[in-house]
C-alpha cells in the first residue's frame, strides 16, 4: 500500500469487561480487542504483531494462545496485565467512530472473530439494558468484591467470571429499576437464593429473527435445538447476538458452593438492613482452609519462569475437569476448588499449588480409589501439552492428598496464619511423586477497594427505604503423580520406620491414607474411609522429542507404601 492509504485504513483498540463497565479495581487486568480491516488476517496478529510486541521494553510475560476457544495474546504492558483479542472486519478501513454493535458487521466473519467481537458487544449491551447505571456500578463493585472474598470468582475454575456477575447484577437492576445500590445488593441475594436453576438468566429476548433477516446463522444457545445446551447447570445468557451461555464451565460442586454463598449473603444483608450487622461481615474472607478435613493438592512445576508461566495456564484450565472427575465418585458429595493459587520459587524449580477440599457423605467401611480420576486428569494435561507443542522436559505435575492439619507444609506461612489454622509441628506427608516438596513460599492475592466499597454502600443504604420482609422474587424470567520416572529419587521427609520404597509390580504398591469422615454435621462415630491412589499404574509420559509413548513402552515406576 502507498503511504496515503496506510494512513486511511486505520485500526482500533477497544476495551471491554470490567474496565469498560467502569468497575475495574486496582491491580486488575484490562480486556482489550484489536480490530483490523479486511487485509489483515489472524495469522499476522499472532506472528508479525507478536514479534513486534516482543521487542518492546514495556512488554513482559508475553504469551500467545492462538488455539483457545477465544484466541488471545496475554502480556504485562508497563506493569498492567492485558488480554488482547483480535477481530478482522470485512471493511476497507476502521475509523475511531466505528460502532461494533451493528449486526451487519458480523457478515462474512469467521466464528473466532465473532466470539472476540462479542466481548465488546456484550459489555455495551449490558450498559444499555441497565435502568440506573450508577446504582448498577456500585452494586456490581460490591458483588465482585464479595465473590472474590468468598473464592467464587473464576470462570476458568468453574465459578463465574466478571461478565457473568455483571449480567446477574444487571438482571436484578431490571427487576428493581428504582432501587439504590445497597438494596440491589440485598435483592441480588434474595433473587438468586430462590432462583430455580437451570432456568436461564436473560437480560433480553434473543435477536434471532433480526439476525436471520441479515442473513446470519451463527450457533446460539438454545436447549430446544442443541442437545449439549440441556446439560448446562447454571446458564447465564449473553444479550448480544449470537447469544451464548457464559457459564458452561460450572460443575455440580461449584454451583452448590455458589448457591450456598447466595443463601449466606441473604442472611447477612438481611441482618445489615435490620441494624444487627454491618457491611464488613458481608466481605469476610472464605473459610476454605478450615472448612474441610481433607484436601487434594495439585502442584505444577517447571525449571524456568517462562516454562512455568505456560505450564500454569494449561494446568489451571484443566482443574475443573479434575473436579468433575472427583464428583463422579459416589462417596464424595462436594469437591471444592479454591480460586486462590500459591506460587513459590526454589533453586531447582518454580511451582504453583491449587487446593481442592473434599467433603464425604455418610459411609460404612469403604475403600475409595482415586487412581482413575487422577490418571484421567494428568493424562489429559500431558496429552494436551504435547498436542499444542507446549510440553518441555522440565514440566512436572504432582497430585497428592493432605489432611487439614498438614496444610502448614504446603501453604505460605502468612496464609497459614491468616486462615487461623493451629500452629503445630507436623511430619511432612508423602507426595505421590518421589521428590521432596518443602517450599512454602508464595504470594496471596489481595482485593483492593474494600473500605471504599463499604463506605459507598453505607451512603447508599442511608438513602434507601427499609425493605419489607415480605419481598419476594419477581417471577419474570424472560428475560503426584510425577510422570517423570526417577529411579534414584527418594522422599527424604518420610520417616524411615514408617515407609519403604519398592520397585515391585505387586498389587499392594499404592498410596493409602486412612481417615475419618469429613464435612459438617458428621458423626464422630462414622466409619473410617480408606483413600487409595495407586502409584505404579501406567501413566502418560512424553519422550524428549514430544511424541506420545504408548502403553507398551511404559516403564515401571518406583512406589511408596505407607506401613
TrEMBL record:
<dbReference type="Pfam" id="PF04926">
    <property type="entry name" value="PAP_RNA-bind"/>
</dbReference>
<feature type="binding site">
    <location>
        <position position="153"/>
    </location>
    <ligand>
        <name>ATP</name>
    </ligand>
</feature>
<feature type="compositionally biased region" description="Polar residues">
    <location>
        <begin position="428"/>
        <end position="460"/>
    </location>
</feature>
<dbReference type="GO" id="GO:0031123">
    <property type="term" value="P:RNA 3'-end processing"/>
</dbReference>
<dbReference type="InterPro" id="IPR048840">
    <property type="entry name" value="PolA_pol_NTPase"/>
</dbReference>
<comment type="function">
    <text>Polymerase that creates the 3'-poly(A) tail of mRNA's.</text>
</comment>
<feature type="binding site">
    <location>
        <position position="31"/>
    </location>
    <ligand>
        <name>Mg(2+) 1</name>
    </ligand>
</feature>
<keyword id="KW-0539">Nucleus</keyword>
<dbReference type="GO" id="GO:0003723">
    <property type="term" value="F:RNA binding"/>
</dbReference>
<feature type="compositionally biased region" description="Low complexity">
    <location>
        <begin position="470"/>
        <end position="480"/>
    </location>
</feature>
<feature type="domain" description="Poly(A) polymerase nucleotidyltransferase">
    <location>
        <begin position="1"/>
        <end position="130"/>
    </location>
</feature>
<protein>
    <recommendedName>
        <fullName>Poly(A) polymerase</fullName>
        <ecNumber>2.7.7.19</ecNumber>
    </recommendedName>
</protein>
<feature type="domain" description="Poly(A) polymerase RNA-binding">
    <location>
        <begin position="287"/>
        <end position="346"/>
    </location>
</feature>
<feature type="binding site">
    <location>
        <begin position="16"/>
        <end position="18"/>
    </location>
    <ligand>
        <name>ATP</name>
    </ligand>
</feature>
<dbReference type="GO" id="GO:0046872">
    <property type="term" value="F:metal ion binding"/>
</dbReference>
<feature type="binding site">
    <location>
        <position position="29"/>
    </location>
    <ligand>
        <name>Mg(2+) 2</name>
    </ligand>
</feature>
<feature type="binding site">
    <location>
        <position position="83"/>
    </location>
    <ligand>
        <name>Mg(2+) 2</name>
    </ligand>
</feature>
<dbReference type="GO" id="GO:0006397">
    <property type="term" value="P:mRNA processing"/>
</dbReference>
<keyword id="KW-0808">Transferase</keyword>
<dbReference type="GO" id="GO:1990817">
    <property type="term" value="F:poly(A) RNA polymerase activity"/>
</dbReference>
<feature type="binding site">
    <location>
        <position position="83"/>
    </location>
    <ligand>
        <name>ATP</name>
    </ligand>
</feature>
<dbReference type="InterPro" id="IPR043519">
    <property type="entry name" value="NT_sf"/>
</dbReference>
<comment type="similarity">
    <text>Belongs to the poly(A) polymerase family.</text>
</comment>
<keyword id="KW-0460">Magnesium</keyword>
<feature type="region of interest" description="Disordered">
    <location>
        <begin position="427"/>
        <end position="530"/>
    </location>
</feature>
<feature type="binding site">
    <location>
        <position position="31"/>
    </location>
    <ligand>
        <name>Mg(2+) 2</name>
    </ligand>
</feature>
<feature type="compositionally biased region" description="Polar residues">
    <location>
        <begin position="481"/>
        <end position="493"/>
    </location>
</feature>
<keyword id="KW-0479">Metal-binding</keyword>
<dbReference type="GO" id="GO:0005524">
    <property type="term" value="F:ATP binding"/>
</dbReference>
<dbReference type="InterPro" id="IPR011068">
    <property type="entry name" value="NuclTrfase_I-like_C"/>
</dbReference>
<feature type="binding site">
    <location>
        <begin position="162"/>
        <end position="163"/>
    </location>
    <ligand>
        <name>ATP</name>
    </ligand>
</feature>
<dbReference type="InterPro" id="IPR014492">
    <property type="entry name" value="PolyA_polymerase"/>
</dbReference>
<dbReference type="Pfam" id="PF20750">
    <property type="entry name" value="PAP_NTPase"/>
</dbReference>
<feature type="binding site">
    <location>
        <position position="29"/>
    </location>
    <ligand>
        <name>Mg(2+) 1</name>
    </ligand>
</feature>
<feature type="compositionally biased region" description="Polar residues">
    <location>
        <begin position="517"/>
        <end position="530"/>
    </location>
</feature>
<feature type="binding site">
    <location>
        <position position="144"/>
    </location>
    <ligand>
        <name>ATP</name>
    </ligand>
</feature>
<keyword id="KW-0067">ATP-binding</keyword>
<dbReference type="InterPro" id="IPR007012">
    <property type="entry name" value="PolA_pol_cen_dom"/>
</dbReference>
<keyword id="KW-0507">mRNA processing</keyword>
<dbReference type="InterPro" id="IPR007010">
    <property type="entry name" value="PolA_pol_RNA-bd_dom"/>
</dbReference>
<dbReference type="GO" id="GO:0005634">
    <property type="term" value="C:nucleus"/>
</dbReference>
<feature type="domain" description="Poly(A) polymerase central">
    <location>
        <begin position="135"/>
        <end position="284"/>
    </location>
</feature>
